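retry 2 of 3: previous attempt timed out while embedding DLL. Reduced batch size to 1 and resubmitted. Inputs unchanged:
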Amino acid sequence: MDNCFNKDIEQASPSYLKAIQSARLIKMVKNAYENVEFYKNKFDEIGLKPEDIKSIDDIVNLPFTVKQDLRDNYPFGLFAVPKEDLVRVHASSGTTGKQTVVGYTQSDIEVWSDGAARAIVAAGGTKSDYVQVSYGYGLFTGGLGLHYGAEKLGATVVPASSGNTGRQIQMLQDFDIDIIACTPSYAMFIGESMKESGIDSKKIPLRAGIFGAEAWSENMRKEIEKTLNIKAYDIYGLSEIAGPGVAYECSEQTGMHVCEDYFYPEIVDPETLQPLPDGTYGELVFTCIGKEALPLIRYRTRDIAMLTRKRCSCGRTLVKMSKPYGRSDDMLIIRGVNVFPSQVEHVILELGMQPNYQIIVERVNNLDTMTVNIELTEDMFSDSVRVIEATEKKIESEMQSTLGVYAKIHLVEPKMIPRSEGKAVRVIDKRKI
Ligand code: DLL
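retry 2 succeeded.
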């Protein structure tokens, strides 16, 4: 049996958990109705009163929320607390380049940190450990999420952030790091770089990694475990709900326990929106029953996963979600950064070019790379090679600032991009994960 950070909850009986969930749902629905105009209107439209929600079973009667609702109410319109009660704001990019803004009260930060601390303990972490946080810090929730989780546990944080791989490796060696947290692709890259530098992973104390923010396969897990000589654990989360730590893997490594006392999960059919039974793949939906600032109700993640309540050998009773195997929309995740083809299109059109483009995503040396092939317009075609190269650089810089991730731009001759009579094939994803 594993250790738990919050044993009372993580090993709670189903009836105890249900009582907590019911009480929290009732409270949050009241909060949302009274303090968020958007929800008041939605409830009124369908004739639902907060008092109609009497237990967690009534959640199926509540309306859904989607990402567009956050955009429509940009930046703070869905918040249930006055602006001055927020202690933190994070954001993630969206289709039009407009960010999705999320906010946290002090209590929300505690909730989120509790989830992240549970994840670290489930990965075998203790307060004596050194945790190198190599997720990006900033508006992205990865860095600060794991940072606060590790501090809450009482472990020692090394806030490395991402990048500068040589220094990351130096710290792993010199600081005797026990646990590293980063995207799985970055973990692979660190492993490869260590190998190239002739560093034997068996000679450093590192014993576990907490990897998430993007999809990764069991094969990738095996590869990482072998290269870095560690145990590799999955962690799931999304900014709208909290950040990393919404769900996390334990020693069994067969799916992630969901912090269902804070984030109530459901699986629905993405077409009909009808709830699906455990063991069936469908769209993952969360209700934030433990948060104050952004009490999202039945938020559609677009991630496709399934839930299982089978007994887990780690002793935790919290429901488990499978690795999300895909998304019901077209979002690409490049090195942990969300990229929408429509953002790429937006930049191309802004620069006065035609939307004849194709995005090629590959995994080179275990890192995601993105190339955007864009057709030259006929009048640009006569430009000199120097002018064309300068244009590519200009678009690259524009893309980088809009997408938050580097994309190689390749200007191709007119009519080189295949046309389609049906849906255009905008993305060629060659990653085998
Ligand atoms: O990626 C939060 C996070 C940071 C999770 C660090 C884990 C570790 P967003 O940038 O809002 O938040 O992206 C959320 O990333 O809807 C999934 O599609 C994807 N995702 C997150 N974790 C996993 C995972 C963070 N373990 C979106 N496996 C989510 C597969 C994941 N996909």
